[in-house]
Specification:
CATH architecture of the domain at 7-182: Alpha Horseshoe
CATH topology of the domain at 7-182: Serine Threonine Protein Phosphatase 5, Tetratricopeptide repeat
CATH superfamily of the domain at 7-182: Tetratricopeptide repeat domain
Distance between the termini: 78 Å
Strand content: under 5%
Largest sheet: 2 strands, antiparallel
Length: 892
Amino acid sequence: MGASLPPKEANLFKLIVKSYETKQYKKGLKAADTILKKFPDHGETLSMKGLTLNCMDRKTEAYELVRLGVKNDIKSHVCWHVLGLLYRSDREYREAIKCYRNALRIDPDNIEILRDLSLLQAQMRDVSGFVETRQQLLTLKPNHRMNWIGFAVAHHLHSNASKAVEILEAFEGTLEDDYPPENERCEHSEMLLYKVSLLEESGSFERALEQLHKKEPKIVDKLAYKELEVSLLTKLGRLEEANKLYRVLLSMNPDNYRYYEGLQKCLGLYSESGQFSSDETEQLNALYQSLSQQFTWSSAVKRIPLDFLQDEKFKEAAVNYIKPLLTKGVPSLFSDLSSLYDHPGKADILENLVLEMEHSIRTTGSYPGSDVKEPPSTLLWTLFFLAQHYDRRGQYDVALSKIDEALEHTPTVIDLYSVKSRILKHSGDLTAAAALADEARCMDLADRYINSECVKRMLQADQVTLAEKTAVLFAKDGDKHTDLNDMQCMWYELASGESYFRQGDLGRALKKFLAVEKHYTDISEDQFDFHSYCLRKMTLRSYVDMLKFQDRLHSFPYFHKAAVGAIRCYLKLYDSPKSNAEEDEMSKLPPAQKKKIKKQRKAEARAKNEAESKGEESTASGVSKPGKRNAKPVDPDPHGEKLLQVENPMAEASKYLKLLQKNSPNSLETHLLSFEVNMRKQKFLLAFQAVKQMLKLDAENPDSHRCLIKFFLKTGSMVTPSTVAEKFLWNVLEAERPSISQLQNKSLEEANKDFHDRHKGSLMHRAAYAEMLYVIDPSKKSEAIKLIEDSTSNVVPTNGALGPVREWKLKDCMAVHKLLDTVFLEPDAASGWKSRCAEYFPYSTYFEGKLSSATSQPSRKIAENGARLNHAMGQNELIDVKLDAFKNLSVS
């Protein structure tokens, strides 16, 4: 580097490199300027100066200088390497790889460039290139341990585990007999465990077990050793040995559910579906009874039998499990047992069981069949459990009566307020739910979880301003929200985005959804530093697991919700673009006023741009000053107005749709959105592909039926295809239509009627049939509306004595109301449906039920609560906002 310079300037060039590495950027700049005074066209100095400026957030100058350096010395590997580093700092990995390859053409054996290239190849999952680069590094420097390990990992990622094992064994052959030294025991142990896991992955179970036993003295992590050993024994069919080892593991950790599952597999008593024969159930029961005597303190050994036991045995086991936890007062008991509600009949048994306990405690002060007096708190926690039970079953009246009784019993337990808030949310009274959650929060101002729960309820009630003020109570930056973004608080951003979307504020909604998408991009980028760190520290199994996790990162629910929200925003923007509305308003104005408004807009835009540029300059200067805390950048678009000015909403929607199709192919919503987007883009074959995927996933879903009818109705209008594309589409549909069972030898009207006949009792299926009846033949509008109005709710009886479970769901009834109002455009029918649902859901604020806070009068208790909270918090501004939100609200 700097070889073409005289000795004095060459030393200065070395000083630039050293200053860059030690982050003494001003010193490096001074040395670079000294060289450039004598040699203004020296490419490598220009490049290093640019790289230094990049670290000082002067990116524009940096790129200009580095590109000029490459132009002046295009045969210098340093210039190309620096340009690659610049692209890498901006996450332009593909461009950086191109630069590194150009540098390697000039200097093919440069280890530093090869190492940087291998990191980028691992990041971009260019596994074949990664193998090639790692092989070259090993050839150049075979005495370096990291090169051997990197080459093995590269082959593993290339799905060649057996080759990776060969490389690791070749590396072990280069080591001394007494290896490893004391300070490298853990790293060597990890490498041995990694090798055994590779052998297991390649199917060499016998050899893997042999290697594991042979290397036992050198393996430090004894728990990982035992877990690997028992896994190999199970796969080899040596179930007796595996059985004994699982019992050893259980003695170490008797609450590990995976060990119990493995033990059941060894005994031939495991089922993926959870269904067992009577003999298997007896054997399992005997197994867990013996284990419960051995591990008396284990919770898992008592909980697991509740999943497979039936009838009287289930009742007996449930009694033994529930009683101590009610006496102790464990708030999470219902959450622990909630999965049992998916098992037929078990919810009824639990209901009768706990009702018997409640009655016995009320009358005798003890559990049924017991003489031991229970403390007063046992009744409280029994009522608490029953309230959640009836909430789960949709019996909100009973649930509220139980939780109110619990509150009268002990009004200082915070969990009671949180659960009552949840019941009110499920019953449809979101405003009252937010008020109760806030009351719970004020009882413990230092509890972040309760604060978060309260914020979530407020956002569900669309009280965004109040939610923001409450959320920042735990933020470091006071009343700003950058801290929530820095902490990647995705649940808050999603809930906030959904609230803005419901209110029609698409700009803010998009901003929140895209913020979540950016978090996932940042998480993906964060893996970069681990490509070298994990090889150096030998955490190889964790490293491979991390890479697999990163590969499925975008399949996680939070990303799915954010992408769906963003696509729906772009669909709304496409359907009703803001610019068209503004142009319509402008067209009605006189010419003089039009001219005046245009001038005002230009002036506002100019002022805004100047303010933004000043903000950027101040931010950059704040960052570059040494010894001062970095100033956080000012958000140039806090309300998402720029996001609404996108030229092609469908192109943006397609970008997120591709991610969903790749990472969430089994979600019906993915293909529903694909249908919506592609129908708007007139890409009918892609829309048809989405319809086929929906039918494959759930052919009887109302949305699948809607999309099927809409698609063939739209394409059926092309009676005589004119263009080549239309003819091709026509031929494809003619060939594919017979394979769709719903349309075989049927018209669309007949297919729609068959769908209705199969699902007469379901409200949502009936609504879908009515909507498609109207879409196919608009003259049947009144008939379609009457079909919806004639819908009746079936009442599902229960074994409990406190009322039936209603079949209609609040969410479905709201969807039907919106259908009548926005699709059928019949306000009278929508109003009638709303009145009917107000009686069916008396707590719903959406339908203005008689027991909801939407129709309640202000109560003295709310005023008292507001005053008490104001005194407790001493935050006048927050309380003022809160009291405004509580207006016309009554909470018992």
